[in-house]
Structures are given as C-alpha cells and as structure tokens.
Write a structure and sequence with these properties.
Layout: H1 6-19, H2 36-39, E1 45-50, H3 52-55, H4 60-69, E2 72-75, H5 81-84, H6 94-105, E3 109-116, H7 136-153, E4 160-165, H8 178-183, H9 187-198, E5 203-208, H10 214-229, E6 236-239, E7 242-243, H11 250-262, E8 266-274, H12 291-301, H13 310-329, E9 334-339, H14 372-383
Parallel strand pairs: 1-2, 1-9, 2-3, 3-4, 4-5, 5-6, 6-8, 7-8, 8-9
C-alpha cells in the first residue's frame, strides 16, 4: 500500500493557495471540489447529519453540498426519543418522515439515530404519574413499545440503527443511567432484541464517544462478544469521532478500529467533527471566580470569531487528512464515515462544550466551500489501495 504524506501535501497545497492570493481560511484549491462520494466510491459511505433546516431543504446552498458530496444521512436530532415520543403513546412523525423521504429521493444510505440514550429522552419515560421511578417491567415495556413503533414504521427504509448510544464510561464501567439503575445492564441486549424483532433486515449498531480509551474500548469489545454469544444481531460499532486538534492520537484511534474489527463487526465513524478551538477546562482556568478573568478566558477560548488563522487552518486540514488516511487504510473494516453536520455555520460545536463560540469543525466552511482536505481525500483515495 502506497503511503501518502498528507501533512506535506496539505501544507504545500495551502501554501500554493495562499500565494495565489486567496484569504478567508476555508476556501481551498480553485474550481469545484471533487465530490466526496465519488472520491470514496467503493471504499465506504460518506455521510452527514441533517438538522431540520436541511431536512426541509430551507438552505439551497447547503442542500447542493449535501446532494453533491454525501451518499449517507443520519438525523441530527429529530429521531431521538424526546422528539419522537414527547408524551407516552404520542409519536411525532413529521420530521422523521421527511428525513427518510429526503434520503430516498437522493438515493442515500439512511441510518436512524438513536433508539436508547439517556440524553434527549422525554422526561415521562422513566417516571410514573407521581414522579417516581417506574419498575423494571414498565421500563422494559416502554423500551419495547418505543423501539417496535419507531423501527417498525421505517422497516426496510432505514437501513441501520444506532440502537444504544453512550452506555459505557471511559473506565469500562456502565454509565449509571436510568436504564441501568431501573433495568440493569441487560437493557442493552433487550434493546438489540427489540430492534431486530421490528426489522430483521436492519443493521444494528452500538454507538459511543471516546471509544479509543482502552478501558472503554475493551468493555465495548466484550459487549459485542456477549451480544453475539447470546445470538443477538449486532453489525457494527459506531465511533462518534468528536475529536480535537491534540487528542486522540491517530495511533490510538487506529488501535480502536482494529480492536472492533477483530471483534467481528463493522466500524462506522458516525459523528465526525474536529474542533479547531482550544478545549475549555471545566473551571474556566485559574482563579475563575473573577468576572474580568471570565471574560478574558472566554475570549481566549474563542480566538477565531472572524476567521480561522492560516496556521490553524493548515494544521486542521492536515490532521483531518491523517484521519481519512487512517480510514482509507482500514476500508476493509470501516464501512461509513459520517460528518456531524454539513457546514461550520450549523455545527453543534459552536455551542459545545462552551456556548457562543465560532468553530471550524466540518469539511465545508461558512461560505459553503470545501476545505483543502476534500481535495486531499480525492488524491489519497487514488494512492491508498
Ligand atoms: C447533539 C446535536 O448535534 C445537538 O444539536 C443537540 O443539541 C445535542 O445533541 N452525541 C450524540 C449526538 O450521539 O446525538 C449529539 O448530537 C452529539 C453527541
């Protein structure tokens, strides 16, 4: 396999571009960028997450980017259990139906996200009329009804489901969510069983973040083994991929992909974005109680309000390229890479983990233009077999 030095290529291309007199930090080489889905055809699906504006095609320029570059979609929010079933037995289908129609119209691989998650769940899900936790039996029934109803509605149309999201902690222990506290750790096999009952042909995935942590990685490998040993269907592990400029390393990310591959499942990078901003500390820096410090700290955490610096832009493109190099080298295992959004303007990273910042985490800038790495991916895909 020929190795392609993306860092040097990205640097050279960015330098050449800067000499050509273009500024702004997001635009790359001249002309229309090669379509990602063509560059990556036969390697893995290249997907994006759609918010409601995209689903309803309210932004024609963003829509053009989605249709040209992506062949897979996932809903950013509209299929989570809160929006799906806001009150017991009352399902809200409009946005999810429209999302699925969008994918079918554009001939895309459609993934559902997500069936069982402690977050963005409706408040009624875990409690009775008095506000007390429900029994194990009631919660299992609620899970069964939710999964059967949602998966059943899109049977044969949604091709894969994030069945359980974010259940394992970095040290390998189970998250102490209401699901674990009320049902126990077997809420996971139960969720997979219910999803398979509702659509036997759908692929089923376990999805999580920080899955390169060794403790978490090993626990997920164990979970995959347990599900398989129990005769349950699990097709893949989804690695969210909300990464930063410094962490994780390419090596630890690659080791995690290899570990999941060895466990006998496909690997999907399901929510890829890379923040170009510094990572805020929980306490807001030293002496954070003083308001002047807080304002200064906020400014330091939000350095590119008008445009990203050329230096960080170059580093960002090079590092994102390194990740795609890794995915291409492992395309026997990696079956899909999905970006968590379309352009930087609408990324959740602008408000997470700190609100109101200007971040640059996606492959397309606020001007809808492809970043340098989109060209680099096309070159790498030719070189890496
Ligand atoms: C995020 C969405 O992007 C935001 O719009 C929303 O406010 C919160 O959820 N892990 C997941 C995704 O599995 O569903 C989350 O999406 C990001 C973290």
């Amino acid at each position: 396999m020929k190795r392609f030095n993306v860092s040097l290529a990205a640097l050279a291309a960015t330098a050449a571009f800067a000499t050509a007199g273009c500024a702004g930090g997001t635009a790359a080489a001249e002309g229309e960028a090669p379509a990602l889905k063509e560059s990556l055809a036969g390697r893995f699906y290249i997907g994006t997450a759609l918010n409601t504006d995209y689903i309803y095609e309210r932004d024609a320029q963003a829509d053009a980017v989605v249709v040209r570059h992506f062949d897979a979609i996932v809903p950013e929010n509209v299929m989570k259990s809160g929006p799906m079933q806001p009150r017991e037995g009352e399902f809200f289908w409009n946005d999810a139906d429209r999302f699925v129609e969008y994918g079918e119209k554009n001939d895309m691989w459609i993934t559902g996200h997500c069936l069982v998650w402690h977050s963005q769940a409706p408040s009624w899900f875990f409690t009775d009329a008095e506000g007390n936790d429900v029994s194990r039996e009631v919660l299992v029934e609620r899970m069964r009804t939710h999964i059967h109803t949602v998966v059943g509605r899109y049977k044969g149309r949604i091709k894969g489901w994030d069945v359980v999201n974010e259940a394992i902690m970095e040290d390998g222990s189970y998250r102490q969510s209401k699901f674990v506290k009320i049902i126990g750790e077997d809420f996971i096999p139960l969720a997979f069983q219910f999803a398979h009952e509702a659509d036997p042909d759908a692929e089923l995935y376990y999805n999580d973040y920080n899955e390169w942590y060794v403790g978490k990685r090993d626990a997920i490998v164990k979970l995959v083994g347990e599900l398989k040993a129990a005769g349950l269907r699990i097709d893949g592990v989804g690695m969210q991929g909300h990464i930063g400029m410094d962490s994780p390393s390419i090596e630890e990310y690659g080791a995690a992909i290899d570990a999941y591959g060895k466990a006998g499942v496909k690997v999907m990078i399901t929510e890829l974005d890379m923040s170009a901003l510094p990572t805020p500390t929980r306490r807001g820096g030293a002496g954070g109680a003083n308001i002047a410090d807080t304002v200064g700290y906020r400014e330091a955490m939000n350095p590119f309000t008008r445009a990203i610096s050329d230096e960080v832009n170059t580093q960002w493109n090079a590092r994102m390229g390194e990740f795609f190099k890794l995915f291409l080298e492992r395309d026997d295992v990696v079956s899909r890479v999905t970006l968590w959004g379309v352009t930087d303007a609408t990324s959740w990273k602008n408000d997470y983990p700190m609100q109101g910042r200007t971040d640059y985490p996606l492959l397309f800038g606020r001007d809808y233009q492809a970043k340098q790495v989109v060209w680099d991916i096309a070159e790498m895909a030719k070189d890496i077999k």
